[in-house]
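assembly run, all chains below
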Amino acid sequence: MAFAIGLIFALIIGALLLSISGDPVFDTYQRMWDRSFGTADTLSATFNRAVPLALAGLAVSVAATMGLWNIGAEGQILFGATAATLVGRIGADWPGPVLIVAMLLGAAVGGALWSFGPGLARAEIGVSEIITTLMLNEVALRLIRYLQNGAWKDPEGFGFPQVEARPDQAQLGQIWERAHLGVIIALVVIAAFAWFLNRSVWGYELKIAGSSPKTATYAGISMRRKTLGVMLLSGAIAGFAGGIELTGTASRLSENISNGFGFAGIIVAALALMRPSGVALVAVAFSAVQVGGLSIQTLGVSPAVSAILQALILFGAIGAAVLSTYQIRLVDRKVAA
Amino acid sequence: MIFAGITISEAAVIGLFVASIQFATLLYLAALGETIAERAGVLNLGVEGMMAMGAVAGYIGGAASGSPWVGLLVGTAAGAAISVVHAVAAVGLGADQVVSGLALTILGLGLADFIGDDYTDDPRRALFAEVDIPGLSDIKWVGDVLFSASPVTYLAGVLGIVTWFVFNRTSLGLGLRAVGQSASTADAAGHSVVAMRMGAVITGGALAGMSGAYLSTFVVGAWSVGVTAGRGWIAVALVIFGAWRPGRVALGALLFGFTLALQLRLQPFGISFSPILVSMLPYLLTMGVLIVISYRARNQPSPSPAGLGIAYRREER
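ok done. output:
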């Protein structure tokens, strides 16, 4: 509900901005809709882009179950894709299915590695995971920049700094129009985690640890192991998203392989109220705004409109959520009186 | 001069330190703003976005008026204006500071690109000139580096001293720190938590905006998409590196400014070490320092404001 109000708020403010700068409001929104949901072709592209957004959102919400902030999904996606690229270089002549599975596993391990330091530092000496994960985003970005200028530079890139293309056979198959297998994989992963967090003992312990560390300690739950475990898991999911991007949408590792998915994933998770089930739906909506935003350039409208709308959806939803809690409380007090 | 087998020219060394001071100024303004907000208990991860707003507004203000000072002023105002969003969401409505701050970064970067769309190839320039401090600028080496800088560098130094003074020698500063340590106690003592925190966030936004404007009226001298290049995140890191104290943050800014300058100015020294690896240094240093602070803090109180990141809702007191 808050999301719907946030969306309306964003569209209204967005319309104001567009008209101030002299851009056609209706045409812009019409184009964004057509190019994201309009046809089977565009809808399938929207689904593809929703995959990394949803997985990043899932990564953030898994950590949030225990009250931890993984701001490093962006870096974990990047390093996950880097690790998958490494696997692809090793297994360049392996058969497609084997290579894809190995690359996706490599991506998950890479993502977990990237969140290991922050997780350990948080678990052992209480270092804020917000800052450490944030810092590692920038490090991962520069690592890719380093590789594409050096060890992994494409010899066929005409001197242009880019990483060699991944093996051709490591391409996830198409399932419908442009949508690739990653869409199904992401749905399965999300469903598995929704079940895992809500139905398993580990997930239950996680929630206790998140809501009351003291209770958890009394119940014999090791906060240190849970903290490290959940950060590794969160990093693995984000890294996995990097692997899906590499084998599904992209053909090579690059600095832009995570188009800010890690940051948008935090907004997605917040809008989904940190629930895995909601993450998928919000991710599709955000993906549509992003895919639609790329299409308005031909109208002469800045594609930055997309980022503005995404942020405004969140701020609108924050306002709506707060205002609605106030209303409910007022009624409660009257009844109590 | 030959050092460790490498020939180093005097000009290259001075150039390196001049660039260090420029980047230090850029980082210090934004980090000082973030320090003020965090001392009041509000984490603002929107620095990168506020800086971008300052950069685009600073460029437009300068280009339109022909004066870099107008640019600096407009950029500062733009940073303050966009930070109101975080002030309202995170302080006024009690939203999560992490989420609201990150959304502010996305909003600021997007809005800056949107506004700056027509200005990317604009040839107009309104740039600050270096100002020599009489007498001091003639000192060999030191004068070139420290006393022949842009006026914004001197301004950043003055603002740092003012901030230190307000924090430690005025009742306003005491109140601000109290609000950051324990909002409910400060509230009981008669301080308006909401007003103090909003004021701190907006002051921080103004300084981040000034930092961005300095980028487009001096360091880079123009506006382009992505001109902030992740330096806002370094400013956030600096605050922790400097243990939330204006003086130490200044030292950190000099160190981080030096590493930023190294990336650009390594080639004249004929060193083959990758500038890209050097560019990872500020982030790795911050992580290292953070771990050391936290390790020590097991036995002594942490330098971090106790109420940092915790929303204050008066009715839930």
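Residues 10-39 of chain B form the longest helix (30 residues).

The mean pLDDT of chain B is 89.

not gonna interpret more than that til we talk
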